[in-house]
Specification:
0% of the residues lie in helices and 62% in strands. The protein is built from no helices and 11 strands. Strands 2, 4, 5, 6, 9, 10 and 11 form a 7-stranded mixed beta sheet that branches. 28% of the residues are buried. The model has no long low-confidence stretch (mean pLDDT 96).
């Protein structure tokens, strides 16, 4: 009941910046967390950043310290600002949402992904 659409990916030179956007629609009122993951071919999908409905954030991996996750509740949109991009940041970036409908019941949703390519 939640649809996620990512945008903002593309080609950027090393040292540059990008802001990824994820627009959520559907039953967005029950989302209690949203996150950005990234994945390269043959590798697992790894968490980059997460933000909860209460506004707390957490960061993981090599992009920690160079990325910022934020939300615009009026637009039902989450953003990932990435600075000082490096070739190792090249990946498909996926938006994730968790929708909780009860204390012991929740659902996971994924966007289609947006490609980020950092050239050296």
């Amino acid at each position: 009941q939640v649809q996620l659409v990512e945008s903002g990916g593309g080609l950027v030179e090393a040292g540059g910046s990008l802001r990824l956007s994820c627009a959520a629609s559907g039953s967005t009122f029950s989302i209690d967390a949203m996150a950005w993951y990234r994945q390269t071919p043959g590798n697992q999908r790894n968490l980059v950043a997460v933000i909860t409905s209460g506004g707390t954030t957490d960061y993981q991996g090599s992009a920690k310290g160079r990325s910022t996750i934020s939300r615009d509740d009026a637009k039902n949109t989450v953003y990932l600002q990435m600075n000082s991009l490096q070739p190792e940041d090249t990946a498909v970036y996926y938006c994730y949402a968790h929708r909780r409908v009860a204390f012991n019941e929740g659902y996971d949703y994924w966007g289609q992904g947006t490609q980020v390519t950092v050239s050296s």
